[in-house]
Amino acid sequence: MALEEAVDQVLALWKKATAPAKGSRAGAPSLPLRSDEPGVAKCRPNNWADFQHRVASFSTLHWFAKPLALDLLVCAQHGWVNVGPDTLQCECCHARLDCRIDERLSPEGAHKVALGLHERLTSFHLSTCPWRGNPSPASFCHLHFWSVDEALESVRKAIAAMCTELRAVSSLGHVDVDATFLDLLRARTSVSAADWPAYCNDVVSGVLDNASDAPSLDATILVGLAASGWTLRSHEASLLAHCTFCNRSAVLCTTLTDDDTSTAPAPKRHKASVFHPLEAHRWYCPWQRQLREVPGWMQCADALRNPAIPKALTSPPTLTQPVDVLAAVHAILDF
Questions:
Q1: Which residues contact 66 (CB under 8 A, 6 or more apart)?
Q2: Domain count across the chain
């Protein structure tokens, strides 16, 4: 009996040694090393900056028309970067995964292929790869406020941070925010057009310690930017809107700060382009688009809703497939 067990162990070791490695590194060029990660790339699932680095590798040129199971945020959650058309690669084990789905397949066939590829997001890593079965938190892939108070506090903190940034700006150029979005936000909060400016002033003044600290930017614009996930930062002679979720920055206007000398020539004024708070986000950003729940800006708009007006009933997105219902439950539990 002992002899048979020894033979089985030897055969198992031989099979393991001679079996072809799935996702072999042979012939697969590795990505350039990151500037902050000399040597071998690290697996840090809970690192938000690393997650953004992986997400930034995806582009509409190489990753488009993908089903829910292969959403780019889900791919980045499992440690993959986009290195070519329909191609993923792990920076740790350098395994490559081809995610092409034959367009000739029926919807049912394409769905089955997508589910199989989704499973490979975990299993296709090499057996020694730390990403295997160790993804980033599901909360990295969606934006969800657990309560109205949490969403409202997010808006208030963003406004306070923007007011602090604006105090260092002595001369602010013209800021043109898309009026259609501002009206859409107002309608979502159920505040009348006549009352909207005063309502936004009350929201902004509520976060200021001193009424004399009123910012130089219109209150409706501040509320609109804060409710759609933007903060402000000064860069050289410009005021930038920045989203920490999709890591997108856009120029709002030119500025002069208090540190600029009076003898320095004023920056050349360019005609300000209209800033659309939703379209300026990257296309995958949960502030303007989410697959399973309402976008972040709508959550904040609902939190800003005038308490004197009853909240309108809104229908949640319909989940028709059992797998969608199960995934929604997992998204709530895994945070």
A1: 72, 99, 114
A2: 2
More confident residue, 5 or 189: 189
Distances from the Cα of 303 to the Cα of 10, 189, 294, angstroms: 65, 8, 13
- Do 215 and 263 belong together in one domain? yes
DSSP assignment of 109-162: HHHHHHHHHHHHHHHTS-TT-TTTT-PPPGGGG----SSHHHHHHHHHHHHHHH
Q: Which of 12-21, 98-107, 319-328 has the highest mean pLDDT?
A: 98-107
SS3 97: strand
Q: pLDDT per residue over 27-36, tens digit each? A: 333 343 344 4
Token code pair at residue 258: 């208090």
What pLDDT does 39 receive? 43
Pair (135, 153) in one structural domain: no
Residue 5 lies in a domain: no
166 contacts: CB under 8 Å, gap ≥ 6? 172, 215, 216, 217, 232
Q: Are 83 and 57 in contact (CB under 8 A)?
A: yes
What's the chain's Rg over C-alpha atoms?
Answer: 25
My answer on whether 93 and 132 are in the same domain is yes
Output the pTM of the full model.
0.67
